């Protein structure tokens, strides 16, 4: 059956185009009626020179202002006066006000110094703009400074695990760093590292993200209300920014903990115009696993697990208006089992053999960006990048007959490989025609190359040689996208962001595409209260096939093809935002509804490791999803006691015609109730205490409801008695898919950070406890007869639970200079 090659929304898109033209005409008319002058420049940290994303710049004594973009650039057009008082502010920094003459277009850069207030931390990077005034919703941000103070698994601060404490974001299995955002799966999250997609974002089987906190300047998560500039996924956008490097002096950090050792260095290279950042992190687990495995096996085998991250970035100021960035990221994991040579007795004499296995996977990314202030009102950014994810699971076997020269020998290797790589070119522009009006537009072109899964087998022996490759073939695809969005204050109370994204995707001689309308509106009810609403249509041209085991990345990235359609989603959200200045609180309540189409899933019992069968023959297609939820977030952003309380009430369901008799069923990570409490208290200027508590409804899974015996003919396998020739093994009867619930999940984590100024810098000790009251949370459950079962005699079964993490103490040391 031929798939529909495009989906259009004529009514919505026509309306949005009309609105864009109307706002442009109104802007032009307003500019003709009054003489205006434009102020532009950057806002940066006085200590490091790092650009501040989301800093507020406004005319003192008025409500007219703007915020800086991802490059720290601002543009503010005001009525011409003899002089203008401009103020720049950013939460946690001292405000700076300057008086500028406005007889001509003026360029001015702001430099802000941090405030040394006891315990002040920032939870949102949107500067001093109150929540109800921002033309945004469903955006979460945890600054790196605060992330370091949160309790962490084995003492290693982690970006993804911190976001799991926010409403609308759930973890998968115990300890996993995967993000299930508003009912979506991890592959439906667009993860960007300096505007470049990165595919696999976890280490240690999902327990730690690939993002080293020492190399990151800013990170935010969008779970709805997506602007048109983002596309290619259905559920969320994780936007991560690397540091540019300290412009003032050479500085760095070095630290060691149970889980990893890290080091980073940054500083100026040439006259303050060029800066660099280098950061590296290596896992420590193999140092313990090698010793433990060698001891437990009597020295016959060694098991090791290691991971690493390495980031490098160079920034160069070509001219006052031009800046170049070059960035590289490398990261990988390795799990290996090596057996020492063993000797056994063979038919003719002594046989010597050795085997082992090696699992490798990781990301590689390189990018080159050029930022240019084209005019005081127009800012441009061009990016050229390549990104790659590679997975390989291999086994080796070596056999040697040592009884005689030229006797039988064998050397064989089998492996399964998978991966995806992209070459990307994109251009983005921002235009500021007048206050409270911003236009963004741009285009992206991507060349995809997918290797869904290939099996390799090589064998060399004294008798013959074999070299075989089978499995899915390499698939190429192309994707082109154009977008435009208009953020405008329509009236004193109503602001909106209207956008369109048009995409075309080509694969195997087939094309898909369509127009994706986006709408976000904010209406202020009063001084501190606003109503918000958003709608987004999204399309995704790749899928992730996953065997859901212990969490190792047995995942395949596969493209949408002629037989497997692209995924699609629509999300509608409404909410209320309110601030309580006297208490320093921000309160947001959001309700959302998401519908998903063209989902895929493995057929029952299918796996991607078997034979030469194409992956398209192993999946069921045409799946649907529906997610509904209510989210509440109460947040305190400044003072000695900061933190938040979050709660999510949600329902997450899936439906496939070929699964569960075509009936809707709960998704495996459906949670009715999910809540968290996060508290950070500055006990003293150099001592910070923190605690987090999380609760969630147990995960859904499928268990057999009964069993019966079936006849199995043994063909004389047992004794010669004819009565023994027929045995009765047990078959299980299953009910509805995911109709059983694990026990509820809850956990308490504790942490303390001790900072002290020392010669040439600062030292930091972090102590903590993961799962402080040692709750036995279920990792998975299974039936067993307690070891007294066999294939034909199952015995009395009981349900058992495996718990992964008891209380885990943590300690780490860090030195900053």
From TrEMBL:
Keywords: Cell outer membrane, Membrane, Receptor, Signal, TonB box, Transmembrane, Transmembrane beta strand, Transport. It is found in: Cell outer membrane. One of its GO terms (cellular component) is cell outer membrane. InterPro entries: Beta-barrel_TonB, Beta-barrel_TonB_sf, CarboxyPept-like_regulatory, Plug_dom, Plug_dom_sf, TonB-dep_rcpt-like. It is a multi-pass membrane protein. It comes from the Bacteria. One of its GO terms (biological process) is siderophore transmembrane transport. Belongs to the TonB-dependent receptor family. This is TonB-dependent receptor. It comes from Hymenobacter lapidiphilus. The lineage of its organism: Bacteria, Pseudomonadati, Bacteroidota, Cytophagia, Cytophagales.
């Amino acid at each position: 059956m031929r798939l529909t090659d495009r989906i259009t929304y004529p009514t919505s898109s026509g309306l949005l185009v009309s609105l864009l033209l109307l706002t442009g005409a109104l802007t032009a008319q307003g500019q003709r009626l009054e003489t205006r002058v434009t102020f532009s420049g950057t806002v940066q940290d006085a200590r490091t020179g790092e650009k501040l994303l989301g800093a507020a710049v406004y005319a003192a004594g008025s409500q007219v202002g703007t915020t800086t973009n991802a490059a720290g650039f601002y543009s503010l057009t005001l009525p011409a006066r003899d002089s203008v008082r401009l103020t720049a502010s950013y939460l946690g920094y001292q405000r700076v006000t300057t008086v500028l003459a406005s007889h001509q277009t003026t360029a001015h850069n702001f430099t802000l110094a941090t405030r040394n207030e006891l315990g002040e931390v920032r939870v949102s990077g949107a500067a001093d703009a109150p929540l109800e005034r921002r033309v945004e919703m469903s955006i979460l941000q945890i600054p790196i400074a605060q992330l370091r103070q949160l309790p962490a698994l084995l003492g290693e601060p982690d970006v993804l695990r911190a976001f799991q404490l926010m409403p609308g974001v759930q973890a998968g299995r115990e300890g996993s760093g995967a993000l299930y955002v508003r009912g979506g799966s991890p592959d439906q999250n667009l993860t960007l590292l300096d505007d470049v997609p990165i595919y696999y974002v976890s280490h240690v089987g999902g327990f730690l993200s690939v993002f080293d906190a020492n190399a990151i300047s800013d990170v935010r998560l969008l779970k709805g209300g997506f602007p048109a500039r983002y596309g290619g996924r259905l559920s969320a956008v994780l936007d991560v920014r690397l540091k540019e490097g300290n412009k003032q002096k050479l500085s760095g950090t070095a630290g060691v903990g149970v889980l990893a050792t890290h080091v980073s260095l940054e500083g100026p290279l040439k006259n303050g115009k060029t800066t660099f950042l280098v950061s590296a992190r290596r896992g420590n687990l193999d140092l313990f696993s090698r010793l433990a495995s060698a001891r437990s096996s009597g020295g016959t085998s060694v098991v090791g697990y290691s991971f690493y991250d390495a980031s490098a970035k160079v920034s160069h100021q070509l001219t006052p208006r031009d800046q170049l960035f070059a960035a590289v990221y490398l990261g990988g994991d390795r799990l290996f089992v090596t057996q020492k040579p063993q000797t056994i007795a063979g038919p003719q004499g002594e046989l010597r053999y050795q085997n082992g296995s090696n699992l490798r996977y990781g990301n590689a990314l390189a990018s080159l960006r050029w930022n240019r202030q084209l005019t005081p009102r127009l800012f441009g950014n061009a990016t050229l990048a390549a990104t790659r994810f590679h997975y390989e699971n291999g086994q080796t076997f070596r056999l040697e007959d040592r009884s005689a020269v030229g006797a039988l020998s064998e050397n064989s290797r089998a492996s399964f490989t998978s991966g995806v790589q992209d070459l990307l070119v994109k251009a983005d522009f921002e235009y500021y025609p007048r206050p409270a009006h911003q236009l963004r537009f741009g285009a992206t072109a991507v060349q995809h190359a997918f290797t869904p899964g290939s099996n390799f087998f090589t064998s060399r022996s004294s008798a013959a040689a074999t070299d075989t490759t089978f499995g899915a073939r390499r698939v190429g695809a192309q994707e082109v996208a154009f977008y435009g969005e208009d953020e405008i204050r329509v009236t004193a109370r109503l602001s909106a962001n209207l956008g369109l994204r048009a995409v075309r995707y080509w694969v195997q001689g087939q094309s898909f595409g369509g127009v994706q309308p986006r709408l976000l509106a904010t209406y202020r009810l009063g001084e501190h209260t606003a109503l918000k609403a958003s709608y987004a249509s999204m399309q995704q041209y790749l899928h992730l096939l996953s065997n859901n085991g212990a969490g190792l990345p047995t995942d395949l990235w596969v493209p949408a093809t002629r037989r497997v359609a692209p995924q699609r989603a629509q999300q509608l959200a409404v909410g209320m935002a309110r601030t309580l200045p006297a208490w320093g609180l921000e309160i947001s309540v959001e309700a959302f509804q998401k519908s998903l189409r063209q989902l895929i899933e493995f057929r029952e019992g299918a796996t991607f490791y078997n034979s030469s069968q194409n992956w398209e023959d192993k999946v069921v297609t045409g799946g649907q999803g529906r997610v509904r939820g209510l989210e509440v977030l109460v947040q305190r952003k400044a003072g000695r006691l900061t933190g938040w309380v979050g709660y999510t009430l949600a329902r997450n369901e899936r439906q496939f015609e070929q699964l569960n008799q075509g009936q809707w069923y709960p998704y495996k990570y459906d949670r009715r109730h999910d809540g968290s409490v996060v508290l950070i208290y500055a006990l003293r200027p150099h001592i910070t205490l923190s605690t987090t508590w999380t609760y969630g409804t147990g995960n859904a899974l499928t268990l057999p409801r009964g069993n019966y015996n079936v006849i199995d003919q043994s063909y004389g396998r047992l004794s010669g008695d004819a009565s023994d020739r027929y045995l009765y093994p047990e078959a299980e009867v299953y009910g509805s898919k995911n109709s059983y619930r694990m026990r509820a999940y809850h956990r308490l984590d504790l942490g303390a950070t001790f900072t002290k100024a020392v010669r040439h810098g600062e030292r930091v000790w972090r102590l903590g406890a993961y799962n402080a009251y040692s709750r036995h949370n279920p990792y998975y459950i299974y039936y067993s007869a307690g070891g007294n079962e066999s294939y034909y005699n199952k015995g009395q079964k009981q349900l058992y639970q495996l718990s992964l993490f008891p209380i885990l103490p943590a300690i780490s040391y860090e030195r900053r200079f």
